[in-house]
Amino acid sequence: MTVSIVATGDSTCNLIEVTPSTSALFPIPLSKPDLVALLRSLLADAECIFVESGVVRIDRMRDGPRVHVLSGSFALRYHDACPLVLES
User: Fold this and answer.
1) Which neighbouring-strand residues pair with 14?
2) Is 70 helix (H, G, I), strand (E, B) or coil?
3) pLDDT digits 0-9 by tens, 13-60
4) Of 73, 72, 69, 74, nearest to 84 (Cα)?
5) pLDDT given for residue 1 in this prediction
6) Do residues 15 and 8 touch, judged by C-beta distance below 8 A?
7) Given Cys at both, which of 18, 54, 74, 75 links 23, Cβ 3.0 to 4.6 Å?
8) What does the angle CA 71 – CA 3 – CA 14 come to, to the nearest 5 degrees?
9) 10 Å Cβ neighbour count for 45?
10) What is the DSSP string of 8-66?
11) 70-76-80-85 Cα dihedral, nearest 10 degrees
12) Using an 8 Å Cβ cutoff, are 72 and 66 in contact?
């Protein structure tokens, strides 16, 4: 399984999860650099339980960050989230 962040415009991006049998796309109303900065700030501070920007909120969960946008959410595992932060 792979997870990636794909920029789709100046102020939007998608979180994409691809497995051998399925794929999931989660649209986010933030630019890719802004989403990476939010993830980085959450992961850098062990005592931080959430970060938010506008309608996007990222919560620290036991298994990894969970990105919330309005009524939907996208769960990341730590071993998937760390490479996303490091690649940018």
Assistant:
1) 6, 27
2) coil
3) 999 999 999 999 999 999 999 999 999 999 999 999 999 999 999 999
4) 74
5) 84
6) no
7) 18
8) 45
9) 11
10) -SSS-EEEEEE-SS-EEEEEESS-HHHHHHHHHHHHH-TT--EEEETTEEEEE-SSSEE
11) 40
12) no
The residue length of the chain stands at 88
Is pLDDT at 71 greater than 90 in this prediction? no
**pLDDT score of 88:** 60
| Assigned token pair, 70 | 């309005």
